[in-house]
Amino acid sequence: MSGGSFLGALAAGFICDAIGRRYSLMVASVIWIIGSAIQCSSQNVAQLIIGRLISGLAVGITSSQVCVYLSELAPASIRGRIVGIQQWAIEWGILIMVSFWDFKYAKWAKFHEMGFGISWNPT
């Protein structure tokens, strides 16, 4: 997914210049649906990797264009708060995901010993 995200972030500016931010986000949504469908229907590892690469393209496009689109839509008086709340929500999602993973699977996978970060569940 990281490779697709990198390519999507590089292509996002060109796509946005060609069709605009709103439509580039719509295109990214369609790409994301296609990548998710490929991942859900994968029969082997190669198909799963291709689906994750395609989904990564959408992640790269959306991660670079959503904050700009939000700042264009928001009134000047609350523009910074809107973009900040969006980023804050992303960080909370990451925190919850990492905390859940560490709490549920750390005893078997030793995930917290792999250098990912600080363990929230000291075992």
**Overall geometry:** flat
Point out poorly predicted stretches. none
Extended strand count: 0
Work out the count of structural domains.
2
The amount of helix comes to over 70%
Q: What is the mean predicted local confidence, pLDDT?
A: 84
Element string (H = helix, E = strand): HHHH
How many helical elements? 4
Strand content: under 5%
End-to-end C-alpha gap: 30 Å
The radius of gyration over CA amounts to 18 Å
Based on helices, strands and strand pairing, what is the structural class? mainly alpha
Let me know the largest β-sheet: none
Descriptive report:
The mean pLDDT is 84. Helix content is 80%, strand content 0%. It has helices spanning 2-19, 21-40, 45-73, 79-109. The chain folds into two domains: 1-73; 76-123, no CATH class. Helix 2 (21-40) packs antiparallel against helix 3. It contains four helices and no strands. It is flat, with a radius of gyration of 18 Å. The chain is mainly α. The two termini are 30 Å apart.
